[in-house]
Amino acid sequence: MDFEWAPEHEAFRHEFRDWLAAHLPPEFCLDDAADDRVASDRETFERRRAWQAKMHAAGWVGVTWPKEYGGRGAGLMERVIWEEEYAAARAPVLPGAMGLSLVGPTIIHWGTDVQKREHLPAILSGDAVWCQGFSEPGAGSDLASLRTRAEDRGDDFLVNGQKVWTSGAHFAHWIILLARTDPDAPKHKGISAFLVPMSTPGITVRPLVLMTGHRHFNEVFFEEVRLPKSSLLGPLNQGWMVSTTTLMHERHSAGARNNVAQVRALVALAKTLPRDGGTAWDDPLVRQRLAQLAIDCEAFTYTRLRGLTRQLRGEPPGPEGSILKLSGSELGVRIAEAAGELLGVHALVNAPSALVPDAPRWFNRIVAARQYTISAGTSEIQRNIIGERVLGLPKG
Asked: Which end of the chain is more exposed for a tag (fewer CB within 10 A), N or C?
């Protein structure tokens, strides 16, 4: 691979970097934006939505979306640069990220002209924020076992069921919903996808409180919810194909997260944390462990570049994205374990101190890291995908 950036790519990078430097409010900046990907309260959510609208007005939202749908029509390399610069600026995850990275591309692929006109501009501007109604209490990793039912009543569909682990549902305006429309079909058949306003009568959202105190997950209940036929996304009973489009983008997005900034912060902490008359950094075992984490981050970076090479050849996101998802989430757990062992009892303090000024960051890291091995497909599911669809191994 040629790692040199073309002049036009460098120009794009500097243009976006300069724009962020001039317009990103310092109070918006976060150390680990992915851990605060859903705003902690309504006020923060609305501030970030206004930020997305400002970015959109300047042409910095949906840069790779086709121009006909309101995007910039930029290429894959511009998207990579956008992600790198946005992360380097410590900017918050956009409230419309679900729509921008998952729902929007799915609508572009499967939606009718009417659905595209209705939804795509609002996704870009932040006027419509989306959540994803896929997982259920008995259908998480085995998503095809979902039991939420959409019964065809002639003029509309009648939906009953429950979703869970629905990120941002308490703020969302719309949900992309999977429901079973043919209960007699094999489990991967007879499923349909719908685009549903969260204001529809019969929808109830119940937040789930995490160990960190965050409330970005939710249960969503559907009781006698009536949906017009126009809410169907893609062919009837072919929702599994629609969901595959969404999940491929989700795993690419989940795999894009790199932990290098956390490792650097952990190294800086080790150099100041007192231990045995010196600092933790003086311990060769500590240095070796942190060096290995830094190496793992570099390996992750080059693995991602291999995936980008596939897409530059014109191929869509494929099962190789599971490699990024698996390696990234497992690396996050190893970083959390290293932080816990380095900090000892200080890891339990969720407040800044003279010894550990960024203690809340590490408390959250230690408590929250395991969730990434579950969300967007568990590590076990990712290993199955890699084994069966990447390596060609027989199903167990």
From this structure: C
The alpha carbons of the chain give a radius of gyration, in whole angstroms, of 22
For the full predicted model, state whether its pTM sits above 0.70: yes
Domain 7-95 annotated CATH 1.10.540.10: yes
Contact (Cβ atoms closer than 8 angstroms) between residue 93 and residue 34 = yes
CATH of 257-390, one of 1.10.150.130, 1.10.10.10, 1.20.140.10, 1.20.1200.10: 1.20.140.10
Buried b (16+ CB within 10 A) or exposed e, 146-168: bebebeeeeebbebbbbbbbbbb
Biggest CA-to-CA distance, the chain? 77
CB 336 within 8 A of CB 366: yes
> Identity (one letter) of the amino acid at 92?
P
Q: Each residue of 73-131: pLDDT tens digit?
A: 998 889 889 998 999 999 999 999 999 989 999 999 999 999 999 999 999 999 999 99
> Candidates 3.10.129.10, 2.10.260.10, 3.40.190.10, 2.40.110.10; correct CATH number of 131-237?
2.40.110.10
For residue 358, give the 3-state DSSP assignment.
coil
- Residue ranges, CATH 1.10.540.10, the chain: 7-95
278-298 pLDDT, tens digit each: 999 999 999 999 999 999 999
Quote the tokens at residue 60: 């910095």
